[in-house]
Write a structure and sequence with these properties.
The chain has 610 residues and is an alpha/beta fold. It has three domains: 123 residues; 165 residues, Rossmann fold (3-Layer(aba) Sandwich), CATH 3.40.50; 179 residues, Dehydroquinate synthase-like - alpha domain (Dehydroquinate synthase-like, alpha domain, Up-down Bundle), CATH 1.20.1090. The strands form four sheets. A six-stranded parallel β-sheet has the order 1-8-5-4-2-3, sandwiched between helices. The protein is globular. The structure holds nicotinamide-adenine-dinucleotide and zinc ion. The site of nicotinamide-adenine-dinucleotide (NAD) has 31 residues, from helix 7, helix 9, helix 10, strand 7 and helix 11.
């Protein structure tokens, strides 16, 4: 083989950058060598760990791989020092070094490919043998566990669901027949097909302190294959001011080439214009197939960065570091990436799985006060419909909302709960409808609260809390749950500083008029996720989205309206909407005005698709 044509392995070229820029090659020797050794040890041990698992399952020879890796790591260390002239090294040894390095690299590559193949096979096997049906069954209460009233409700709903299905089928058949009648022409075709899309696994790693010190992580953050590719850190102005320098410096210390992109805070960055500008900027700086985009920020940064990652080169690596409570429990723990369009929120987007999501609860300490209850809205939602134990823990807790141990605990549990449902129902058609619990009414109420002239601009978490209260009332009215669920919901929301009534300047009619813009609206009417008891959703034959009569929703909303004059401290959303929040004196003044409040622009209603 031609030694002269040897190119450095892309996976390892980042290491050779270490120490550049120093005039005296020995000056930083101990620190640099320690860093190099650490990086190599980590890369060797991390990769070995993951791959050995797969390897063991396939009875591949792990011991020989260990030998290869250790040999390679220690060899590489010596070779680098020799090649840089940092230690005396005769010319003849250098050639031998390079030759040996080439051989080891080739062997390592071969072994790694073999192991990756084994890994893929094990993943495939694990997936196909996992008992998804058992997990699904554990979500669905059987007839035997329901009382008489609930059983009657289940029978009624079953009939209702069947009728809706029949209507839908009829509608579709009519439309299909109409099209088919018109579209039978003489042109014949030959048919071919291909299948795409393999299951993708996203790792979620919870680790305190990692944002301030990514170089100290004992686990892999950036896959080693991307070590020599440019990384891009997307962050917003506030988060950059708090964590940007340390975060970027940490990755640079590890030898990565990092470009930082600072975007406006909040919704201001989730626009098509910002998307186009940033995509162009990244391409101008230059990426390759193994480049990784990293988001460091709240849900807004995660969404913009995620959408860019999903489109550049038709998809490059994405890693989230969520920094708000909402993002750590909800917005970033997702494969949904989107920006807003003039017609509404999150309307231009994609399903694109991040490689990893690294959650550091320590960064929650710097959040503004309003952002903690805001995140609690989604946590309360999960507790209400998925986990009575979490709910009890939230009920019993009497410490501060800022307590780091408390935050870490609820973040970990909520992530587990969200993973559980996405895992068994990635398309969010069955069990994962827990994610939209409280949103059917929460969305319209949030959207109306953001219209110009609104007297209370609600944050998403606040609106979801109000939506949960209304949903609890609907469940009771339909005989699905005992009245106690309403009080538990109200008490829990109030405890975590979340509103439990609809702002007085909204009206039932306005809210009802916005229902058709929801994802949970169909031509056959609205469907909702509803409680059967605290910690559990009502199901009919494992369907969790249940048809609800408009009159029942209307009644439940009416019962949840705040009495005129009630003041709700709206936390607003970030960016433009937050800044356009009305002042406390506006609210007091408005208490005397008839509802809906003056200055409403009916045409400003936008559809919502979170
Ligand atoms: N993809 C999904 O499935 C999904 C789910 C829910 C929400 N979302 C989206 O998430 C967005 C809302 O996310 P968000 O609530 O995180 O808001 P955000 O991203 O707008 O952040 C809110 C504010 O907090 C600041 N901030 C962030 N981290 C901080 C920290 N550690 N310390 C101090 N300040 C900090 C930000 O600079 C910003 O000003 C919305 O756009 C929503 O559509 C997406
Ligand atoms: Zn939500």
């Amino acid at each position: 083989m031609a030694v002269g044509s040897l190119a450095p392995e892309p996976e390892f070229s980042a290491y050779t950058e270490m120490g550049k820029g120093s005039h005296d090659p020995y000056a930083d020797e101990p620190r640099r060598m320690a860093a190099q050794t650490l990086v190599m040890k980590r890369s060797a041990s991390r990769e070995m760990l993951g791959e050995a698992l797969a390897c063991a399952a396939k009875c591949t020879d792990v011991a020989s791989l260990d030998a290869y890796r250790l040999d390679y790591a220690s060899y590489r260390l010596g070779a680098m020092r020799g090649a840089k002239g940092e230690q005396p090294c005769p010319q003849s040894d250098k050639a031998a070094f390079i030759q040996r390095e080439y051989e080891l690299t080739e062997a390592l590559k071969r072994k790694t490919e073999e192991l990756h193949a084994a890994h893929r096979q094990v993943e495939e096997l694990t997936r196909s043998t996992r008992d998804l049906d058992a997990v699904r069954a554990s979500f669905a209460t059987s007839d035997a566990a329901l009382d008489r009233v609930q059983l009657d409700a289940r029978h009624r709903l079953r009939t209702g669901l069947a009728e809706r299905r029949a209507k839908r089928v009829e509608r579709v058949q009519e439309a299909t027949a109409a099209v088919a009648n018109k579209s039978k022409g003489p042109i014949e075709c030959s048919k071919y097909s291909f299948t795409t899309g393999a299951p993708v696994t996203t790792e979620i790693l919870v680790a305190r302190g990692v944002v301030q010190n990514p170089e100290q992580a004992a686990f892999e953050i950036i896959p080693m294959a991307s070590a020599s590719s440019p990384l891009f850190v997307f962050t917003d102005e506030t988060v950059d001011g708090l964590y940007g320098d340390r975060f970027v410096a940490g990755f640079e210390e590890l030898g990565f080439v990092v470009h930082r992109i600072v975007i406006p805070d909040g919704e201001d960055a989730k626009t098509l214009e910002v998307y186009a500008e940033l995509a162009d900027r990244v391409l101008t700086v230059g990426i390759d197939k193994l480049s990784i985009l990293i988001s460091l920020g709240g849900g807004a940064v995660a969404n913009v960065c995620g959408f860019i990652a999903s489109t550049l080169h038709r998809g490059i690596g994405l890693i989230h570091f969520p920094t708000t409570l909402l993002a750590q429990c909800d917005a970033a723990i997702s494969h949904k990436q989107a920006v807003n369009a003039p017609h509404g929120k999150n309307l231009v987007g994609s399903y694109y799985a991040p490689l990893r999501i690294v959650v550091d609860p320590d960064v929650l300490q710097t959040l503004d006060d309003w952002l903690l209850p805001d995140g609690m809205g989604e946590i309360v939602k999960h507790a209400l419909c998925q986990d009575a134990t979490l709910l009890k823990m939230l009920d019993d807790y009497d410490g501060s909302l800022r307590d780091p141990a408390f935050l870490e605990r609820v973040v970990r549990r909520t992530i587990e709960l969200k993973c559980q449902v996405i895992d068994i129902d990635p398309k969010e058609k069955r069990e994962a409808v827990v994610l939209v619990y409280g949103h059917t009414l929460g969305h319209p109420i949030e959207a109306i609260s953001h219209r110009p002239g609104s007297l209370c601009c609600l944050s998403h978490g606040q609106a979801v809390a109000i939506g949960c209260v209304i949903a609890a009332r609907v469940a009771v009215k339909m005989g699905l749950a005992d009245h106690g669920v309403v009080q538990r919901t109200v008490d829990l929301c109030a405890k975590y500083e979340l509103p439990t009534v609809v702002p007085a300047d909204q009206s039932v009619t306005q809210i009802m008029a916005k229902l058709p813009y929801n994802k949970t609206w169909t031509q056959e009417g609205t469907v909702m996720a509803l409680l059967e008891d605290i910690g559990r959703l009502f199901n009919v034959d494992q369907n969790y989205l249940l048809p609800v009569e408009e009159a029942v929703i209307r009644e439940a909303v009416a019962e949840t309206m705040a009495p005129p004059g009630t003041i709700i401290r709206g936390a607003g959303s970030s960016g433009f909407l937050r800044r356009s929040k009305v002042s406390a004196s506006d609210i007091l003044e408005a208490a005397d005005r008839p509802t809906p409040g003056a200055g409403w622009d009916r045409n400003s209603a936008v559809p919502h698709a979170c």
